[in-house]
User: Fold Alternative dihydrofolate reductase 3 from Caenispirillum salinarum AK4.
Amino acid sequence: MPETTAALFAVEAFYSAFAARDFSAMRDMWASEGPLTCIHPGAPPLTERDEVLESWEAILANPETPDVQCLSPEIVLYGDTAVSTCLEDVGGELLAATNVLVREGPVWKLVHHQAGPLTVAPDFEPEPAGGEGPIN
Assistant:
């Protein structure tokens, strides 16, 4: 599988874990070694592994967390690092998101996620990831 495809698959798995509210799968998406960082919309940066994972556990356990769909994902590779940008449809509101992944052996794992509101509409029509429907 080409590396770009493998990294995109990891991003899709991240959003699938989010949609399923599956904390075990979400935890497995994150790198097991090294630092993790995360910036949730409107929140300060999280820079400790435990606080990043605890934040996801709380988000996924909250029944009021809206559904999230990944739209128009793009991947750029820098050796063993992949940067993914996309739009997130969060209950009808579009956010811009960045996911940074690193290789752990043959698998791409997240080390950073950030999402925040758009101040201007995109100048293109966002498309569901994979072209076959939204990742939710």
